[in-house]
Structure formats: structure tokens, C-alpha cells
């Protein structure tokens, strides 16, 4: 794949291995991690070296190929049985983002549908992982551009608040929510991004801010608790966030803190948008109550570097995501255009939403 040199790509196929930008080290250090084995890819997803729903889908697809490459048998049935084990290992890394499961299923389906030798199946799996990667990049660019059709038309230049990192780092490149921001910036329609810090892992302060700085996009970092105040001050024109899994009714799971942001946006009459590829929609789930929510290590709350913040004896609860009800979402911006949350099925049927070019 030929990528323009000045953009951020968190997952790259290079010299028969996968290069990941180590997102646990940004912004203080830009480092690449070389992944050769499926187990190492699973570990990189678990430890959030690579993170963000579409990016972990792309990483898992390459992980499936790396796993396939490790299987040493010419026997098709034995190969497929082993590949199922690789799939199971990768599926067990993180539970909420459906793109992970979607990409693994697509790889498994490809393996079963490819006729020919095991060597030919392996080759097709590599091509499919590369296709998933390049499709996601195009999808994000379409999401970004489709967002322009639904953003408020006044003021001429908007201040957009976003949460977590739904940028190039969280996708194959360009981003979903930050894709909308990038497209608005390109068109001269962006005054500034407000990036929620995003406790506890600080994806907004560390990653969103870093991406914006790379491209000269004006960015202001605030702590999560400042969002309502900023809205009341008239500083925010729209909120755009990403999603990890959207249920059939439009309820959307995203980084913890997104739900409270949607509530305060409603209270201040500020439009709240979710930007996500259609691969993030899980039509097997009727509503958001069925979305599995990952709980992470409490250390993320009580420890900063080597400093312990809390007294002994305290208990912790560390859900990594929450679900924003569809009624708080003005539109879901997809690669096929923007849809009202209850109308996502149209997008999957390739119908055109607002701003879409199907
Ligand atoms: O825990 P993370 O950092 O993987 O969570 C990421 C998010 O919640 C993003 O907003 C979401 O995956 C959308 S990324 C385009």
C-alpha cells in the first residue's frame, strides 16, 4: 500500500511483519513495535499498544495472518482448526469494540471460502488483511467528509469538542470523529478542537492533542469535568465522538465519559454526533444494554507513574466504556452518509444518508 508520508498510520505491513506505533509511549516518545507472531499481536491489543475500535480490527486481521503463517500443516482441515484457535486468542483480548470481532470473522470466512492449498489460503488471508486496512482508510476519509454536511452552519468556523481519541491512531488513518475535524479544518470550517483529557488513560490529552499538533490543528485540552462549564460559556458549537459498538437502535458505546458529555450537550442544546464506520454497528444487538463493557485494571485510576493517589483500603470500579442512548445522538456519521440513530439499517443496505455519495 502506498501511504502519503506526512500522515499517521498506527498499523503498517512492512517487510513481512506488522509495525505498530506504540500508543502507550506517545506523546513523549514516537516508537514503532515490530510484531511477527499472533500472540504478540494479541498482547499488543490487550496492553493498548494499538487501540481504538477500527485500529484493533485492522491489527487483529494482520494477527490472523501471522497466526495462519505459523500453522505448519498442508492439511486444510487441520489448518482451519488451528486458525479457529488463533481467532479465539485474538477475540479474547478486548470485549467491547465490535470491529475486532468483525475483522476476525471476515478473515475466518475468507479462509473457509478460499479453495486451493493451505499456502494459497495463507496468501489470500494476507491480501484480505491489507484490504481491511486500506478500506478502513477510505471509510474514514468518507466519514470525515460526510460529517461536513451535518455540522452546524453557523458560526462559519466551529469549535468542536471530542472525547478520547477517535483519530488516525484509532483507525487505519485519518480517524472517525477526528476525521470530521480534519475535513472541517481542510475546508476552513474549524476554529479549534477541544479535547477532553479522558480519564483514566488520557487518550485525549496524549493522543488527540498529539495528532492535532502534528497537523497544525488548533487544540485546547480540558479535563473531562470542564466540558459542561465550557458549553455554558458558549465555547462549544458541536460534539463529535467515535464509537466502539453501536446497537441496532443507535445506542452507542464509546470511551467512559461519553454518556455524560451527551447529557450535558443536550442540556445546552449543542448537537452531539457519533462518527463511526458501518463495521462498528452490531445488528445482532437490539439496544445498548447488550453491549459488553470492558472493565480494566483499577491501577489505571489510582496510579500515575509511580505515584499512588489514594489511601489504602479504597475499592475501585473501572469500566472502560459507557453507552450513550440513541435519543441523545443527533446523527451517526458513516461512510455512506449521516443517519438518524434509528435509521442505520439503511446505511448497511447501501442507501445514501445525509451528505453520502453512495
Ligand atoms: O480504550 P480505547 O482507547 O481503545 O477506546 C477508544 C475509543 O473509545 C474510541 O473513541 C473508539 O474506539 C472509536 S475510534 C475511531
Task: Explain the overall architecture.
- There is one protein chain.
- This protein is α/β, with parallel strands linked by helices and 358 residues long.
- It folds into two domains: 11-140, translation initiation factor eif-2b, domain 1 (Four Helix Bundle (Hemerythrin (Met), subunit A), Up-down Bundle), CATH 1.20.120; 147-349, Rossmann fold.
- The protein is 38% helix and 17% strand.
- The chain has helices spanning 38-46, 53-70, 76-91, 98-113, 118-147, 177-186, 203-215, 227-232, 258-267, 299-302, 344-348, and strands at residues 11-14, 17-21, 32-35, 158-162, 190-196, 219-222, 238-241, 245-247, 252-255, 272-275, 281-282, 303-304, 307-308, 321-324, 331-334, 337-339.
- The strands form four sheets. The chain has a seven-stranded mixed sheet with strand order 6-5-4-7-10-15-16.
- The protein is globular, with a radius of gyration of 20 Å.
- The two termini are 24 Å apart.
- The mean pLDDT is 96.
- Bound molecules: 5-S-methyl-1-O-phosphono-5-thio-D-ribulose.
Amino acid at each position: 500500500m502506498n501511504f502519503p508520508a506526512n500522515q499517521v498510520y498506527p498499523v503498517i505491513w512492512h517487510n513481512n511483519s506488522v509495525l505498530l506505533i506504540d500508543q502507550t509511549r506517545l506523546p513523549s516518545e514516537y516508537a514503532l513495535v515490530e510484531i511477527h507472531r499472533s500472540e504478540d499481536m494479541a498482547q499488543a491489543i490487550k496492553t493498548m499498544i494499538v487501540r481504538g475500535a477500527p485500529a484493533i480490527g485492522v491489527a487483529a486481521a494482520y494477527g490472523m495472518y501471522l497466526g495462519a503463517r505459523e500453522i505448519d500443516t498442508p492439511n486444510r482441515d487441520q489448518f482451519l482448526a488451528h486458525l479457529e484457535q488463533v481467532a479465539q486468542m485474538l477475540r479474547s483480548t478486548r470485549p467491547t469494540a465490535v470491529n475486532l470481532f468483525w475483522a476476525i470473522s471476515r478473515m475466518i470466512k475468507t479462509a473457509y471460502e478460499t479453495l486451493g492449498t493451505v499456502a494459497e489460503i495463507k496468501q489470500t488471508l494476507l491480501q484480505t488483511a491489507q484490504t481491511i486496512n486500506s478500506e478502513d482508510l477510505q471509510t474514514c476519509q468518507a466519514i470525515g467528509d460526510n460529517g461536513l454536511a451535518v455540522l452546524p452552519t453557523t458560526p462559519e468556523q466551529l469549535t468542536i469538542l471530542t472525547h478520547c481519541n477517535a483519530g488516525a491512531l484509532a483507525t487505519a488513518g485519518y480517524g472517525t470523529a477526528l476525521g470530521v475535524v480534519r475535513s472541517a479544518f481542510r475546508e476552513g470550517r474549524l476554529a479549534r478542537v477541544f479535547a477532553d483529557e479522558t480519564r483514566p488513560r488520557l487518550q485525549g490529552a496524549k493522543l488527540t492533542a498529539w495528532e492535532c499538533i502534528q497537523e497544525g490543528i488548533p487544540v485546547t485540552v480540558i479535563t473531562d469535568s470542564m466540558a459542561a462549564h465550557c458549553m455554558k460559556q458558549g465555547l462549544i458549537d458541536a460534539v463529535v465522538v467515535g464509537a466502539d459498538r453501536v446497537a441496532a437502535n443507535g445506542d452507542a458505546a464509546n470511551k467512559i465519559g461519553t454518556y455524560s458529555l451527551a447529557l450535558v450537550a443536550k442540556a445546552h442544546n449543542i448537537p452531539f454526533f457519533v462518527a463511526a464506520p458501518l463495521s462498528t454497528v452490531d445488528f445482532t444487538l437490539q439496544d445498548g444494554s447488550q453491549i459488553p463493557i470492558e472493565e480494566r485494571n483499577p491501577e489505571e485510576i489510582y496510579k500515575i507513574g509511580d505515584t499512588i493517589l489514594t489511601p489504602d483500603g479504597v475499592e475501585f470500579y473501572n469500566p472502560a466504556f459507557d453507552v450513550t442512548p440513541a435519543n441523545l445522538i443527533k446523527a451517526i456519521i458513516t461512510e455512506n452518509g449521516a443517519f438518524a440513530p434509528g435509521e442505520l439499517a439503511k446505511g448497511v443496505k447501501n442507501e445514501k444518508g445525509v451528505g453520502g455519495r453512495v
